[in-house]
Amino acid sequence: MADPHNTSVSAGDHAKQIGYIGHIEKLIFSQTQIIPVSVDEIKTREFKQASPYKGLKRFEAVDKDRFFGRDQFLTGLVNELEQTNLLLLLGASGSGKSSVIRAGLIPWLSQDQGSRFTDLIFTPNQDPFNSLYHILHDRYPQAEAEFILEGKADSLTHVVNRVKPSEDFCFIFIDQFEELFTIAHADKRDRFINSLVQLVEALIKTENRSVKIVATMRADFLDRLSPYSPLIKATDKHRPMIAEMQSDELRLAIEQPAAHHGVVFETGLVEEIIKDVQGQAGYLPLLQYTLDLLWETEVQTGSLQDRTLNISTYRRLGGVRGALQKHVDRIYSNLSKQEQLAVQRIFLKLVEIGGDEESETQWKPIRRRANRSEFSDELDQKILTRLINQNLLVSNRPDQSQESIIEIAHEILLTSWTTLSAWILENRQAIALRNRLNDDVARWQAKKAEDELWSGSKLEQVLELRKDPTFNQVLGGFSPAANQFIDASLEKRDRLLREEQERSQREIEQLERLLKEEEKAAKAERMRTRFAVATAVFAIAALMTGGFAWWKQQELQQTTRTFMLGADLPASELLDKLPELFNEANIFKQAGDVELELAAYRRILLYTDKLREESAKNSERRTLEQEKLQSISKQAEQNLLEIIHKHRLSELEKYLSKGKFGRPKRGEHSTDFEKKFEPGALQVTYKILMREFGVKADLNDDGLINNKNEAARMPCETLRILEEMWRKATQGHCGWFGSSFEIIDESCGQLNNQTLTSLVFSEPYEFPIERLQSCGIRLKPEKNALKITPQGTIKAKHS
């Protein structure tokens, strides 16, 4: 016995009855009535064997006649669009955001406007300007569309002015707006959002109501808008949320497509389906897939001859919760071992990792689009076609063109097919690294710029991954273009290393010559000093006239110069002189000269390091001297910290409290710190760690921390205090580490999504990172830390 309650009027039918005069009038879709119709009457309709359900494929405008259940929401959407030029539709994944626009709103606008209607529909992908360009390129001459590739702030405004005749109505639909925050390049995202806001502001200023823009975005990405206050303002009060369908709406969506094909549901089946889907997150694609599978199964078994969809078939398929899992597992299990491996390679090439792939809780799998040409293996191409035919993958072209774009049919597959979920979990870090590499390869191929090549830890990681047999077999390895990129990066690294070695050798030879010359000069100077009684007289006179500090400064500078130039002063004499240097520092403190006081303690630390190396070579005096040196070094470091914390951190606090963070200047030499940063907290942080202003960890003035000795000059306490000050001033967003091993942090908008690590220290990052880690400063979130391998590779370490 079939359910006698069916509906025969769609939202699209109502839309055709509405007039349009000058702009969108206030629309009221009359409520679709559930009209009792007998089973026999429905079965007298023309029987159409093709399934009326979409499966995992998305609804399009051509599907308007089988799109049901959203009449009331569509009414509110159209009325709200009348009040604004930009509407941001939010909802959970699988809630039907895209479908209500594509199969509901767009057909209504198209019918209403007729020949005056123009629509531009695209997803942001990696470059939203490029995505829009491909839409325009298909409709307009190439020369007229190329300007959009420049990605300027006024690009979207020019699009509207160039492609839309003044009397036409233009509708721009940006689907999956969250891709701007998951796979789009940061600079492209920022420029696109600026361009979008500028267009909306221009439309409002001119009171232009003939251009409407709708974007759909997953609601869990709403916080990503926080750095973009103009966009938040532009969508204020116009961010509707699409909710789950009510029972009567679900009944329409289930029954009506079948009724239009002359088919009914067995009594109780619709109620059982509604009960199965309610409360299940993202159920709409699963519902469509199950109904489509139910229909096709009934056709294949001949059970649809009686025009009835049966409960027994539905339950045998596993219901809404199990149909997709069981069906995909059945397809997969019927393949050979080699074909199964090809399926795994294909799916993992179509997955991107969102969030923090190092975290156990904050990462998430998302769909990735890829050209068919990426699947070069003949077996992969064969299986790819089969998966498309089975509606598990989709292609933007019906043929097998290598330029067609392939993607997973729906995001629900990433979580509903447990086999795929396990593959992703096991390989997520390799997937994330490979996809980031592919993005950079694409930019490098376009420009062939050497600065696009990888270096440091990123290069070491891909070199290790390239040798991994599991990566090559399961994920298909790197593409030929990626391997070319890696080889070019490796060649650049080796060339720079050779050049650095040659430069260092020349500097060593030059230094050896200078040391020999200075050694002779130093010996002569000491001889003259022994017999120059006048020096003592001068010292006494200087003391009496208040010039003692100046005299001691000169002596300190001479002593330092003699030591640094390698004079043969016995180590025992130098050890005895270290306490005298504390007196020198105290004199500078009384004179109020902070810079000289800092310099004195830095010299003490340099001397103690050198003396430790010397005493370690002599076993007879090693223990005694090491203990003495340790005590002197500890006291000097403590005094150094007190000076920095008293006299330097106050300047940093001044900038942080005012939100004046500063930023790096482009194109300036890394050692010229005053030109490297704009005035602000970032410049002060750099000066505290790298220059004479503070601890001066950059011993050789090359703008880098490129060995362990320099890294050790940065006190852990200072590094921790800097971390706390920056986190406090940026509401916890900005610090030394971000949330990925690439030293980036997308939540740190104040520093343009970078971290203190990447801005204060230039590559190589290995030594400063190792120092930060040894000081107990961890990645964000707290459960992650960085570990540096002996090869310099940065890897995740879970605490």
Quick description:
The protein has 799 residues and is an alpha/beta fold.
Description:
The protein has 799 residues and is an alpha/beta fold. Helix content is 55%, strand content 8%. It is built from 34 helices and 15 strands. The strands form six sheets. The protein has a four-stranded parallel beta sheet, sandwiched between helices. Strands 11-13-12 form a three-stranded antiparallel beta sheet. It has a two-stranded antiparallel ribbon with strand order 1-2. The longest helix is centred in the middle third of the chain and has 52 residues, at 480-531. It is elongated.
Topology:
Layout: E1 5-6, H1 11-15, E2 35-36, H2 39-43, H3 71-81, E3 86-91, H4 97-113, E4 117-122, H5 128-137, H6 142-145, H7 155-163, E5 169-174, H8 179-182, H9 186-205, E6 211-218, H10 229-234, H11 247-260, E7 264-265, H12 269-277, H13 283-301, E8 308-309, H14 311-317, H15 319-333, H16 337-349, E9 351-355, E10 363-367, E11 370-371, H17 378-389, E12 393-395, E13 405-408, H18 412-416, H19 418-447, H20 456-466, H21 469-474, H22 480-531, H23 534-544, H24 548-564, H25 571-590, H26 594-616, H27 622-647, H28 649-657, H29 673-676, H30 681-690, H31 708-712, H32 716-729, H33 756-760, H34 766-774, E14 784-788, E15 794-798
Helix pairs in contact: 13-15, 14-15, 16-17, 16-19, 20-22, 23-24, 24-25, 25-26, 26-27, 28-30, 28-32
